Automatic annotation (TrEMBL):
Sites of N6-acetyllysine modification: K619
GO cellular component: cytosol
Protein's name in the database: Acetyl-coenzyme A synthetase
Ranges for domain AMP-binding enzyme C-terminal: 538-619
Species whose genome carries this gene: Stenotrophobium rhamnosiphilum
Gene: acs
Amino acid sequence: MSSDKIESVLGEKRVFPPRPEFVKKARLDAKKLDALRAAADKDHVGFWGDQARKNIAWQTPFTRTLDDSKAPNYQWFDDGRLNASANCLDRHLGARGDKIAIRFEGEKGDARNWTYKELHAEVCKLANGLLSLGITKGDRVIIYMPMTPEAVIAMQACARIGAIHSVVFGGFSAASLKDRIEDTGAKLVIAADGGNRGGNIIDLKKATDDALASGGKTVEKVIVYQRTKHSVNWDAKRDIWWHDLLATQSERCDPVWVEAEHPLFLLYTSGSTGKPKGIQHSTGGYLLGAHVSCQWVFDLRDDDVFWCTADVGWVTGHSYVCYGPLSNGATILMYEGVPTIPDAGRFWKICQEHGVTIFYTAPTAIRALMKAGDEWPAKYDLSKLRLLGSVGEPINPEAWMWYHRVIGKEKLPIVDTWWQTETGAIMMSPVPGATPTKPGSCTQPLPGIAAGIVDDSGNLIDQLDQGGYLVISKPWPSMLRTIWGDNDRYISAYWAQFKNKYYVAGDSAHRDADGYYWIMGRIDDVLNVAGHRLGTMEIESALVSHPRVAEAAVVGRPHDVKGESVFAFVTCKGPRPEGAEADALSKELRDHVAKEIGAIAKPDDIRFAENLPKTRSGKIMRRLLRSIAKGEEITQDISTLENPGIVAQLAGKA
Ligand code: WT7
């Protein structure tokens, strides 16, 4: 985060107390929230045990709430059995069978609603289809689909039979898909022919074919949901149309009851080193976190239309499109496309037409819509909205105020929710009927979440207004269980820094005089580009895999819409390219990164130099590169550089 942004956040003094009209109807007011916090503080484990008994439908009740004997591999509710899909669907069939579960709108304007009964029937048909293909409990299934209800159906169908799903965001390339298939050892891929995005067709079937041509030998079958109907290649031995598979399946499929610790899903995310990590989530603890946070943070009620704009390829789409709202019996909205098709009013038009009451999106989208101008939201009736949310990166006070003023008409609460792929559910957020908000602060931890800030030696910082590492000091039910296939990495990435005492989130934060948390951003080599988490090392290895590249260093550069953009410094084999040759190679490298990872990882800037700035011990000086990327005057001491002369070249001045 740039220093001017930090200053604007630190100078933020505005406070917005909950409005009485909201408090009156809210699930939690200040008194109830205090009572929950007090209960959790008094008996952390007992508190979560009570929540789990109250909120989750167990087939076999648990008797052990927390097993910490193998810490930091914690286990929650481990002798209980349940099924996530039965919690999301079957338990609503009585009272809410004809209630709309999903309202869907495609980018081209096609729309369809699914009731809980219809959703249940379709999930059962697909689950039976999976069983007929020999998929059983514990098998891994990759889901590579557009944002259509079928993506949620695929997740729920896996959960129903105890198969472990791993959703791969449709914007990731064939190469990334292949890596994930191989790391999970998946037997099956559920894909679509394509998805509509930004007026184009994303050819998911072709990417699947490419991924499987280059590896992924564990995959036996590919189920293809027909969405875009463009012509696709077909491998008759391997590929099955979704509609053909489901045509003969029964609408009844008994859920497979799994242990609470049975993995519900794997979701890959970037870290500071190596390949993306397969974050493993449990069934019982995860579902509890997704479920209760919907009630506490979103005040979710039966008459809400809940729209979380995240793709199901990200954890936000898992917890707040698929599992959290459906386990609460809510109506969700799913939209396939981008916010700017056909124009910048699309999101607000959807809110009007579908009567959206809760709207949850990312700061990068808010900034883009803010830039498009106030005239777009002004065209539409947003009066059904009652709550706004933000997630994915720190929201700058300017964007917060715009959201508050133009979308919230200065009346709606804004919940700025801090959490991570690893945490499974929201960890810090205002509770809208209870917590006064401040623009740019995620305010306070939710009940049962023991957040803290520690210094370099791992001492908790009690003093307010002093920054440090954001940590969680007690296990919580929806925490990740491990990294798939690499428990050592789980321990080294999240626990080892402070001798297994704290979960280390990878963010820095500080608290103000009211004890409110302000997240300052990542402290590791992880970038947050338009709310997408990318490892600098991943992009560097993608660049270096190009035959012309000798070495690459990637840093983030502040960007007014995306938050951060990717800036790459590259040295080439052979002479340093210049002029038209440099332009052509830049384009080639950008395309190469898109092919290796996905278009979201393309560098906005590439600068060629003869060398990278290294210390005499050979370490790349990233701090210096970050300053250069920002265009700052270099005032740092570069005397320790092995090659101080290179700085002018890196800065584009030679
Ligand atoms: C990282 C996690 C789970 C949410 C989607 C992103 C940043 C997330 C906030 C927020 C400040 C935030 C952090 C975090 N982040 N929400 N409200 N305020 N920063 O999940 O891809 O796992 O990324 O996103 O840096 O560590 P993710």
